[in-house]
TrEMBL record:
InterPro entries the UniProt entry points to: 2-HAD (IPR006328), HAD-like_sf (IPR036412), HAD-SF_hydro_IA (IPR006439), HAD_sf (IPR023214), PGP-like_dom2 (IPR023198), S-2-haloacid_dehalogenase (IPR051540)
NCBIfam families linked to this entry: HAD_type_II
Taxonomy, superkingdom: Bacteria
Species of origin: Arthrobacter subterraneus
Keyword Cell inner membrane: no
Family recorded in the similarity comment: Belongs to the HAD-like hydrolase superfamily. S-2-haloalkanoic acid dehalogenase family.
Descriptive protein name: 2-haloacid dehalogenase
Pfam families per the UniProt record, alphabetical: Hydrolase
Length: 224
C-alpha cells in the first residue's frame, strides 16, 4: 500500500471471531450443525432488510428471535429456552482466529486500530479480553449508535465522524465482500481477508488489498 492509513477499522464477526464452534453448539442441542451458518446468514439478511427500510435493529434481538423460531421448526413444540440460551452463550463466548493475535500485534505498529461491528461493542470487548488484545484497540464502535447497519454508507461515515477523520483515511478490514463493497462506496480504503482462498464476487467493488491472514496484511502495509 502506497499510503499508510491513519486508522484500521475491523469488522468483528467472522473477521476476527472464529465462529466454527457454533456448529458444535447447534449439534449439542439436537439441531443440524450446518444450520449454524444458515442461522447467521439469516441474521445478516434480516438485518440488511430492516436497514433498507430505515430501521436499526439490534443484532442480538434478531439472533434470538430467529433462533427461537428455528428451534420450534426443527425440534417441535415445547420450551426451547435452554437451547436458545446455550447457543446464544456460545455466540458471545467465541475465540479469535489463529492469525488474529499476531496479526493485531503487528498491525498495531502500523496504525490506530478500531472496530466497527453490526453487533454490540460488549461482545467485541469480551472477545478481545479473552484473547489478550483489548489494549491494542483504541475504540470499539458499533452500528447500534449509527443510523443504519453496514453496508449502508451511514455506518462507515458514522465511524469516520466518531474518529474525526475523513473516510479515505480509514482502511476497512473484513472477510465479507459485502462489507468491502459498502466501505468502498462510502469512500474508505479496503482490505479483504481471504482465509479460505475463495474467489471474490465480481459484482462487488474490488478490495484495495487482499491477504490470506492479518499477519500477511501487516506485511503489505507500509510503516509511515
Amino acid at each position: 500500500m502506497t499510503e499508510t492509513p491513519r486508522t484500521i477499522v475491523f469488522d468483528v464477526n467472522e473477521t476476527l471471531s472464529d465462529m466454527s464452534p457454533l456448529a458444535e453448539a447447534f449439534d449439542a442441542e439436537g439441531l443440524p450443525a450446518l444450520a449454524a451458518r444458515v442461522w447467521f446468514a439469516g441474521i445478516l439478511r434480516d438485518g440488511f432488510a430492516l436497514t433498507a427500510t430505515n430501521d436499526n435493529p439490534g443484532f442480538a434481538d434478531i439472533a434470538r428471535d430467529s433462533l427461537e423460531r428455528l428451534c420450534a421448526d426443527t425440534l417441535g413444540p415445547g420450551d426451547h429456552s435452554a437451547a436458545v440460551g446455550n447457543i446464544m452463550g456460545a455466540l458471545t463466548s467465541l475465540s479469535v482466529h489463529d492469525d488474529v493475535v499476531p496479526g493485531i500485534e503487528a498491525l498495531s505498529h502500523r496504525a490506530e486500530l478500531v472496530t466497527l461491528s453490526n453487533g454490540a461493542t460488549s461482545v467485541a470487548d469480551a472477545l478481545f479480553e479473552r484473547a489478550g488484545i483489548r489494549g491494542r484497540f483504541a475504540r470499539l464502535l458499533s452500528v447500534t449508535d449509527a443510523a443504519r447497519w453496514k453496508p449502508a454508507a451511514e455506518a462507515y461515515h458514522y465511524a469516520a465522524a466518531e474518529l474525526g477523520q475523513e473516510p479515505r483515511e480509514l482502511l476497512l478490514v473484513a472477510v465479507h465482500p459485502w462489507d468491502i463493497h459498502g466501505a468502498h462506496r462510502a469512500g474508505l480504503r479496503t482490505a479483504w481477508i481471504n482465509r479460505t482462498g475463495t474467489a471474490y464476487p465480481g459484482y462487488f467493488d474490488a478490495p484495495d488489498l487482499e491477504a490470506g491472514s492479518l499477519s500477511e496484511l501487516a506485511g503489505a502495509i507500509r510503516v509511515a
